[in-house]
Design brief:
The protein is mainly α. About 65% of the residues lie in helices and about 0% in strands. The protein has helices at about 10-20, 30-50, 65-80, 85-110, 115-140.
């Protein structure tokens, strides 16, 4: 039987799986579990950077529902604005928190809604942004990046 228009060559599908891409038959539950793990790991990284601030901030999120988590993170954003540290660190930490909240929201929707692979991709893209911003926060805090202006 010849392959029709839009039907992938079987060798291409097998090759993409062998190269580390997800097989098409990956279950919704398995994708959700990967997102939950990524969200949890990202929370742990955020907690570590907050604890390493000039005035440490403790972020306890255990047992919170999504609304409470959002409120706690908003309070954290307010607190970090008052901590004496470079403006660049504050800005990137705020972006990291906003990206985390966005990733959390998209993952929450993905959990409760129909399967849409783009949501999983969006969660991982946002988490990448969180981690990039945290890297920049650490660079500011440890003097790798100096945002003081010369007069």
């Amino acid at each position: 039987m010849s392959e029709g228009v839009g039907t992938p060559d079987r060798r291409q599908v097998d090759k993409s799986t062998a190269e580390g891409r997800k097989p098409m038959a990956d279950s919704h539950e398995r994708r959700i579990q990967r997102m939950v793990t990524a969200i949890t790991d990202t929370i742990n990284v955020l907690q570590m950077v907050l604890a390493d601030l000039p005035i440490p901030v403790q972020l306890d999120l255990i047992g919170l529902n999504p609304s409470q988590l959002g409120e706690r993170m908003e309070r954290t954003r307010q607190i970090i604005r008052e901590i004496p540290m470079p403006d660049g660190a504050k800005a990137h930490l705020e972006l990291a928190i906003l990206d985390f909240l966005s990733a959390f929201d998209v993952a929450h929707i993905a959990y409760h809604e129909e399967e849409n692979l783009w949501r999983e991709d969006a969660v991982f893209a946002l988490i990448s942004d969180v981690l990039a911003n945290i890297t920049l926060v650490n660079a500011y805090l440890h003097g790798v990046i100096d945002d003081t202006e010369e007069d």
